[in-house]
């Protein structure tokens, strides 16, 4: 890929406000988008996310009523992804999930796993209380979100982050459908994916020379 192609992809991605309800993302492309999240980086490799990929129209319509930032996007999109993030209890160094991650996913020998747990414990002590731990975990989930939007753009698939949500109401809907266990996960953000109906506007951004300082 050359540099113009990279810039084209970055410009292609925009906050798409309305999708063509008749155009659905193929399962092959959806898998690539999800890979964008699965392969995203996270602090100490904790992968605190889970992606609820909603294609059920009735559920999308219901959720759109409590997501003020996604009134047109959620009902028209092909897939609405709700980004869940593990709770502080789940990502503490002595949790079952961290044990699974170190042993079954990363295949660390016992002494390495124990060192990693100690390292995680010192990070945890620095981060502090549950509120800070949840924010720390949410930050990782946003990185996965960004990676998924860019993966989609590479496939000419549009997206729109939906941060304008009533979290409590969304969580209630998910709990009622047995899609969320609040002890383990909380809702962080949403993102709609699909195909645009309107052309995007040129990007309005600060000039390049104002957003960075090169230190030689
Ligand atoms: C964390 C976050 C939350 C956002 N929430 C919403 C939202 O609820 N509804 C919406 O239409 N756009 C939302 N956006 C899109 C931004 O408004 C948009 O990315 C920004 O204005 C820049 O425009 P562009 O993405 O088209 O380049 C959100 C973006 C981010 C990063």
Automatic annotation (TrEMBL):
Residues 12-174 form the Nitroreductase domain. Keywords: NADP, Oxidoreductase. InterPro entries: NfsB-like, Nitroreductase, Nitroreductase-like. Belongs to the nitroreductase family. This is NAD(P)H-dependent oxidoreductase.
């Amino acid at each position: 890929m050359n540099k113009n192609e990279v810039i084209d992809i970055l410009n292609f991605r925009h906050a798409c406000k309305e999708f063509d309800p008749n155009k659905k993302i193929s399962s092959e492309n959806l898998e690539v988008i999800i890979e964008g999240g699965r392969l995203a980086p996270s602090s100490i490799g904790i992968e605190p996310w889970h992606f609820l990929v909603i294609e059920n129209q009735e559920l999308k319509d219901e959720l759109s009523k409590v997501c003020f930032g996604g009134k047109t996007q959620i009902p028209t999109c092909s897939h609405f992804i709700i980004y869940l993030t593990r709770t502080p209890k789940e990502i503490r160094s002595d949790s079952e999930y961290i044990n699974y991650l170190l042993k079954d996913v990363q295949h660390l020998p016992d002494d390495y796993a124990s060192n990693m747990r100690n390292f995680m414990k010192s990070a945890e002590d620095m981060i502090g209380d549950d509120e800070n731990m949840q924010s720390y975990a949410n930050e990782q989930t946003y990185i996965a979100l960004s990676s998924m939007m860019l993966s989609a753009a590479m496939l000419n698939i549009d997206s729109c982050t939906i941060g304008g949500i009533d979290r409590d109401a969304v969580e209630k809907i998910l709990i009622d459908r047995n899609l969320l266990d609040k002890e383990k996960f909380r809702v962080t953000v949403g993102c709609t994916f699909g195909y645009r109906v309107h052309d995007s506007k040129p990007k309005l951004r600060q000039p390049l020379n104002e957003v960075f300082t090169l230190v030689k």
